[in-house]
Amino acid sequence: MIRYRSVLLLCCLFIPAAAGQAIAEQQPLQMQRHSIAEGAVTDTYWGTQITDTYRSLEQLGNPKVAAWIEQQAAQARTVLNSIPGRKTLLKKMASFDGRRKSTAYSLTITDSNRYFYLKRTPKDETGKLFFRNGFKGKETLLFDPESLSEENGPTFVVSSHSPSDDGKTLAISVSANGSEDDSILIMDVDSGKLYSETIDRCRFASPSWTKDGKSFLYNRMRTVSGPEENPQYDSSTWLHRIGTDPAEDREIFSRTANPELDIDSADIPSVIYDKESSSLFGFLSTVDRRLRVFVAPLGELNAPSTKWKSLITPEDNIHDFAVKNGELYFSTPEGAPRFKIMKTQLANPDFRNAETVVDEQPEGRVDAFALTSDAMYYTLSLNGVDARLFRIEDASGSTTELSLPFKAGSAYISSKGTRFRDLWVTIAGWSIDYRRYHYNPDANTFSVETISSPASYPEYRNLKVEEIMTPSHDGMLVPLSLVYKKGLKKNGKNPVLLYGYGAYGKSLTPFFSPSMLLWTANGGVLAIAHVRGGGERGDEWHTDGMKTTKPNSWKDLIGCAEYLVKNGYTSPENIAVNGASAGGILVGMAMNERPDLFAAVIPQVGAMNPLRGEETPNGPVNVPEFGTVTIHEECMALIAMDPYLQITDGTRYPAALVTTGMNDPRVSAWQPAKFAARLQEASSSGKPVLFFADVDAGHGMGNTKTKEFEALADVLSFGLWQTGHPDFQPGK
Prior knowledge:
The protein is α+β, with helices and mostly antiparallel strands. It contains ten helices and 38 strands. Helix 2 (86-99) crosses helix 10 and helix 5 packs across helix 6.
């Protein structure tokens, strides 16, 4: 079986939050200014002149720019470290971490029932790779990424791992300092020995093993000769046979090898071998969730060139698919904004006249599905926060809702494929820890199969969760999740951490984070706004918050903040708003439109200058979500959604903590830098605008545990300081 979704290249980075209670008077902070502007640049877009004051910051290699960033980072670090209460937050996070003997994640189960996963103990900075035979088998350490690190050198992490179906061979992707610049190592599992070859430039590798377990297909980026070339352009899928020189690998699927397929330079080609149908599926990926897929018989791998046949086009509007017994099951919002599941023949697909397996549901979004030997399972999500699980029996066609072990906010299902009956589900809630269960269809029971050690968090037994609908500017009702201590007084004085994302159709489903819940432990309200641009209410919820409709995203966020004020939860001087990556557009524009509504804005690794996004390596592949300057309507939308360009001189802006990672391959570090510099220049409020750039980090993927804790402590302590919590006031 194969299941695939488009690669999300400006991925959401959710950094948890801390707390607040009483309000204290703000103390003025003396900030040292470091000038960097070296002359504005004016460009004309479709007759509209745009002045870019801090264009010089795009030259990250310029010594003056590097010095300015270093000065800004040092100053931000000094201020953040001086916030009372920050050390207490870090100690509490370490205490939480120590309660769990080990944390396991990134689990893969092979046909041979070998379990491969990353595991981290309280002593570890990053996960080590383990395997066991079956859930109850003896655990064996396979690979420790620290073995690659040298003293004072880069820190390596395991980015991903891909075992062969028999579990005897393993492709291990590693990268350093958050760069996501992966290299593939290959291991013989039984001996634990690595093969001699290493394959570099493998950020989008997605290794897929062939039938014999001796070769795998993978994507590799091309070499570039200078900074003017985009390293993400014209990547290729190659076939590698283990134990051979990667220079001998054969190109299988690419713009170069397949000019007849009209592959764009920005497309990311990948090939997956599907053992259920003995087919090769070739994907061309951008951030567009509508799949573009080609198919070829497995035997084509032995031919001098692969003859690909178009299978799925973006016009078919298919977001996910799987194959069973010659039939292609697929998920689509075509004529069903909350999605439906249909099936057609793989050999001669007819998507327009396909058979409906699960129709669109009035009460929620048909979220995901998995196929087993005797059934299909699917999940239904109400507003992204209430998950249900269903089973459709192959023999009878009957549908049964399965009673989950506890009321779940999120549910993630997986199977080993159509030759097995196994079904696993992982469920969680805002105040309930993750649990992974194996389902027994004969007994209709769930048994715990959580590899992570159990832990208890008694301090969170007294939390209240509210799921409410708040009106936006156009009357649309927006889901808003609230988490806080029972007995909270609606006196308008509670610190609120308001988080949002709103992009790529990605839903913010409930998750459990003890460190993030520290915000509630300090008497605050944790608020998650499920704004348009996300996928919580279906496909239209996404498309109503992208490109020309992007303003709905930040207007939804503003509506959520206004609701909290109107209903006595808080007041504007007590709201900190936080977003990451594409969420930088969301919080940056909310700040620009309503600077009076927030005490602090915290964009992390944010896309703060989207008009210039296409000039970055990762920009072109994100055009389907945000738009392009080459189309008038979309260009004007990019200008309108650009937080950096919309900053106005003399405005009383809220305090700001702006962060970036200098190794970030997704959002170039100069985007947050330009935003911070312009905000420092324009704000008349006198509130601090901090810019912290981490030279040893990227977009957040691959961070060590210490970096994760420190980044979260920065967000929480800055937010609590600016929302007036008495324990976080400097000089108090």
